Write the structure tokens for this entry.
Amino acid sequence: MIKKNSSWSSVILLTLLYVVNFADRTILNILFTPIKEEFLLSDFELAFLSSTSFTFFYATLGIILGRYADRYKRTILIAIGAIIWSIATLLIGFADSFLFIAICRICVGIGQSFFFPSAISLLSEIVSSERRGAVMGFFSTAIAIGIGISFIIGGAIVSESGWRTVMIIAGLPGIILGAITFFASEPERNNISAGNKINLRNSWNEYKKHKLIFIHSIGYGFFAVSSTSINVWLPTYFQRVFALSVKDSAILVGSMVLFVGVPAIILSGMASDFARRKFRGGRMYLSSYLAALSIIFWLIMLMSSNYYVQLIALPILVLTGFSWYGAAISDIVEIVPISIVAFASGVYIFFVTLFNSAISPLVYGYMNDLLFKIYPNGEGIRLTLFLSPISAFIGAVLLFYGSKKMNLQQSQNNISN
């Protein structure tokens, strides 16, 4: 599973950093209510702070830094990024205005843009292709762990010490892990001359040769809109529709993400490897069915006013919404050559975050504000969330098409050989 010239220590360190990465990225979501009340913000402004404010730099710099990660020492890039985003997260605890929080969130995006391309480039070299889905699945459990822990612990702290204390505590682990990463080793490059002149045009020209990667990235981008709305809007949904407290809604969603999302990511990573062994497009094929299944449970949840129906539908929704991460990352390495894996990972992040963190939160927030004028009892957010099954449907169609195209390419290659 792990190649001989590396060790599990690298995988574990990267996974821990990814946990902190997602914890710091999403912790603001459970604090919507107290921040909204203190600074008198609209849902549109909350959405801007939560996602959109850090997305532009996170997505665009990820492409540029991805190319640097293909040439320079990745552990240094990761360490710098971790310290930047962690300090920015901590400083939000001292915010005195909307603008101060927005600037800090922009810095979070800048810091986090260092991480993903470098981490995927490292993992692609230390993980064998046969078990890549399983190991990438293990790495991707950090998403659910980070969200789950931040929601559960943050929800408990906010009720006792306030939202500012939550942000200060959230920023500390990344500073420590970033310092450790400065001294971490990484495997020797294969067929790459580290330190060569960075040429984004050459990388982009090589990337464009693999048109399937566009379908892959956009398909997962739409699926990500649906799954990301679980952690962005469901805590607020339960507060407004079912009158749960900030603490109770955070613990409910956080525990579901932690205890359902983590095993879902691990098992789906192994399942994606099995599907890949059956045919080359197996991972996207599996993800297309997960997206389709999530549509059913979104509709069950949103069309019922019974709280116990929500509790039945929520874990299945989390399961489907968190089961595609390992497959998505693994297929990047399958589609593009190793020399541009980090660059392609940066482009993948650009598309996914453009959809789920730049555009969709503002659309959801705007619709919430608009519908609140008509449905002040909280039903407006329920109607807004119908956007999630719609985006999952588009993602399912694109991923299914991508899997078929990937299989066709394999057949053509077999014939030519």
Q: What stands out?
A: The CA atoms of residues 205 and 237 lie 44 Å apart. Confidence is low (pLDDT under 50) at residues 1-6, 191-195. The radius of gyration is 20 Å. The longest helix spans residues 246-278.
